[in-house]
Amino acid sequence: MSPCFLSRVSLSDLQSTPGSSSSLCVLPSFHLCRMLIDKDVSIPPETFRKHVDASLTYINRGLKQMSRLFLVEDLVDSLKLAVVMWLLTYVGAVFNGITLLILADILLFAVPPVYEKNKTQIDQYIDVVRTQVNATVAK
């Protein structure tokens, strides 16, 4: 956006300057981003409907899950949600929202290479944690 904006402002300035003999100003329709302006960016209705239909199942599943949690259909799951939301208030008190987004972005690109390098060790620890959690839940 900045290069297009700067070129339009500079060309308008050159055109409005008396005695200007710029070769670019001879063309009244010259625009740096003309190729992009003329490009068709419309979405065909069939493509839009296909993506809406595909996302509709996920939206309905999410709405059903939210209503199940908020209307306390299962007491344990609703209590888990309440505890997570309560803990997130403390996270929100410590971190700003943009800080959380920056940290999530860093982790998004840092975790996969670390996992690929240490896959066997991480999988061993995950198995240990999983067996302890299963043993605790079974009691």
TrEMBL record:
Compartment annotation: Endoplasmic reticulum membrane
Topological type in the membrane: Multi-pass membrane protein
Ranges where the Reticulon domain occurs: 28-139
Annotated Gene Ontology cellular component terms: endoplasmic reticulum membrane; neuron projection; postsynaptic density
Segments traversing the membrane: 83-111
PANTHER family: RETICULON, RETICULON-LIKE PROTEIN
Keyword annotations of the record: Endoplasmic reticulum, Membrane, Transmembrane, Transmembrane helix
A Pfam family this chain is assigned to: Reticulon
GO biological process: brain development; endoplasmic reticulum tubular network formation; neuron differentiation
The name this protein goes by in its record: Reticulon
InterPro entries documented for this protein: Reticulon, RTN1-4
Keyword presence, Transmembrane: yes
Principal localisation: endoplasmic reticulum
Domain of life: Eukaryota
Magnesium among keywords: no
